[in-house]
Design brief:
The chain is of the alpha/beta class. Helices cover 44% and strands 14% of the residues. Helix 1 links the parallel strand 1 and strand 2. Helix 3 packs parallel to helix 4. The protein is globular and about 50 Å long. The termini are far apart.
Length: 276
């Protein structure tokens, strides 16, 4: 028996990276999955987003565990379509128990760019990371309350949501602002949903081995600044975590082992935040 047998989880940004890892881990614990991903590039972000083929691969990986998955192509900035996709998935599986607001982007400028570009980066990262997190929760909360069984919402923030890092450009500042803002959403929802036994928490990963961290532009920055980033290093002897490391924390928070944990900003960061 898995720790999540019979439950249903809704995960955004599910086609690859952390979202795919969360889907597979929660399915391995017994949950069916409702998942969405944009499956299209975002112009202000230098690295490619996942595609439809990767979403199909995630579905296949979930089904290989013996669980079911309903996957849809949806931009989390589009609330009506996001809500429709979730409603359809809940109608198919009959319930909703776990929400993972995971979708996120990180625009990066290696050199000075026009203000118009910075404004586009800011709008996109706030739209995906922060508005998308709100949209996810707003679409899901009525289902969780209606179920009458309690539930769990986990927002993916970042170490950049706990400390003052993010650069000077619109993309970097927008990323930090969005990840700090997610903590505010979490704390308010944790208070307001506690009476329904719905727990709400954030996880704050350090760098994770996904396209966001290892895309060519980010790797170029690291190569050009070999001595410029000691503050970005983890105290524990690991350069980057794997997506499965974050999934383990989410599986715990979603389980009955964490049934009284709510309103918590949980670093999964190899000591990164503690040293700052």
């Amino acid at each position: 028996m898995g720790s999540l047998d019979g439950k249903v989880a809704f995960i955004t940004g599910v086609a690859r990276g952390q979202g795919r890892s969360h889907a597979v881990r929660l399915a391995a614990e017994g949950a069916d999955i409702i998942g969405v991903d944009i499956c299209a590039d975002i112009a202000s972000t230098s690295y490619p987003m996942a595609g439809r083929e990767e979403l199909a691969e995630t579905v296949a990986l979930v089904e290989a565990t013996g669980r079911r998955m309903f996957g849809s192509v949806v931009d989390v900035r589009d609330f009506p379509r996001l809500r429709d996709a979730l409603d359809t998935g809940v109608a198919e599986f009959g319930r909703l128990d776990i929400v993972c607001a995971n979708a996120g982007i990180a625009p990066l400028s290696l050199e000075e760019v026009p203000i118009e570009t910075e404004l586009e980066q800011w709008a996109d990262v706030i739209g995906v990371n922060l508005s998308g997190a709100f949209h996810t929760a707003r679409a899901a909360v009525p289902h969780l309350i209606a179920g009458g069984r309690g539930g769990c919402i986990v927002f993916t923030s970042s170490t950049a949501g706990l400390v003052g890092m993010g650069g000077l450009d619109g993309g970097g500042l927008g990323y930090a602002a969005s990840k700090h803002g997610i903590v505010g959403i979490m704390r308010c929802l944790a208070n307001n949903l506690a009476a329904h036994s719905i727990r709400v928490n954030t996880v704050h990963p350090t760098a994770v081995n996904t396209m966001m961290a290892v895309n060519p532009q980010m790797m170029e920055w690291a190569a050009d600044n070999p001595d410029g980033g000691p503050h970005l290093m983890n105290p524990m002897p690991v350069a980057m975590l794997e997506p499965q490391d974050i999934s383990a924390a989410i599986a715990f928070l979603a389980s009955d082992e964490a049934k009284y944990i709510t309103g918590v900003a949980m670093p999964v960061d190899a000591g990164f935040c503690n040293k700052l």
